[in-house]
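User: Round two. Same drill as before: sequence, then structure, for each protein.

Assistant: Same drill it is. First protein:
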Amino acid sequence: MQKVFQFYADPGHGWMAVKKQLLEDLGIASKITSYSYQRGDTAYLEEDCDLDMFFEAFQQKTGEKPVLKQHHSDRRSKIRNYDSYRFDSATFRVVATVHNPRTDEGANPAMVWNTDSREAATRQAEYWTRNGYWSAIYDVASGEALHDFTPTGSLQ
């Protein structure tokens, strides 16, 4: 029997609803980006990156392709108002800001991403830095900043 997942789309984007526990069971919970959303025990995987990763992991584990039941709205989806996805038991948190967070008290995170892999955290921070953001990698348990990256891509 194939598993059916709900896919919601508005005029600009789409998301598939999936229980967070399934993401953990598939081993990808820490790899989902903050471009996806969450509400309660459900994650809403964005269609451009996270959904493909889910499909691959799901197929690999079950041998089946997920089936999508499509829901489309001509209005802005309420999913856009949910919290950005975050994996709370991650080891490393990567944060990107528009301004230097060490000198600008008003520097709010533009993007946050969590992972258990230091290497993946470094790659994500370097990517955001190449795109003009100040980025930092934090140890989730201690809150300590492990590395800061300036927008020029050099390590501080």
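Second protein:
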Amino acid sequence: MKSQVEKIKQKEEFFKQIVHEMKTEERFVDYFKQFDPQIVEVFIKSYAQQKVAWYELAEHLNNWKNSKQDVWMEACFEALSQIQHKKLFNAQCLWRAEKTKLEAIEICMDFLYWEHNILWCPAIKPVEQHEIDFYIQFLKETPLDKKFDEVYQLQEYDEIKQAFLNEIEEEYSSYIPWYEYYDREFGTYELLKLPDIRGEKEHVYIHLSFGEEQRIRDEEDSKKEKIQDNRKHLNYHENNFEDNFIKENESKEFYRQHQAKKSWMHKKDENEEPLMCISELKDIPQKYLPLVSADKWQTAVIYTWEKHRRDMLIEFMPQAYQLYLKHAPKKWDYPGFTEFDPGVDLPKRYREMIIKGRQMNNEAPDLNF
């Protein structure tokens, strides 16, 4: 088995290889001539990152097919992560209101870093058994139409706070089910009503710094010779650009795999998700599995699979927790962990901007405010 360091190195090399190919191979170079080169540069890096992720997803899916146990262990570690996320988010609310200090947290963007490294975050205590018991209670009591492992950005303060307000003011629910369940039990909704004192302070400094950087860029641009580039703007988020690009520039096999990936990721049709659930349920090694009752057979199948997933998570949780205790609070390659971390450089960048903004405001060049 490859070590985590080897995996990271391999992904970095693959990323560089894709970027190099797209900048040097004739089919790509000729294709991009019609577009603004600055946007092309951004697209190449974005596309390369996605391509690396697609291959990683393919490997993940292959492992998923080969070992059902890995799937349930990954689900358990997603649950452990959610337990920690709620604790850190509650702490974030208090920290932003300047009611507490947290280890390894200096600026708001530090929470983004720990969002991707939550199981060894030093700002919160390790998972305890009573928290797992409460999460299992959440699994048993939460309606089956709310998937326990839906993908959320669990430390995005502004978005989560807005979702909470929508929950109160509008008919539909966009608040994270686990957070909602936790808040209802412990009354922690009140934390979302606290003021964002720290965030507002940082915003002042960031605004000053960004404004100065923009002024310098504008000055530099005004000194350069104005050369108008009349080539098309590359709107790679619109008009199925990505599909068309892959079809024209990649192999037929890669295009087929890409379309298969899209189909797997976007199963929206009424019968597709139930059929996927049936394909999973039929592999369960038992003669009879009671179907959860619902108005439509499609819904009944989906709910039955969701209930089975929760039952398996509960079954495997003791094993997962023992594995967690063996490694916590160190960084390690736990089931389902991927080294995709957009939070590495961003906090550093924001620190620089805040300090620069403080200097522009005739304040000390530090984070003590």
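The chain has 14 helices and no strands.

User: Perfect.
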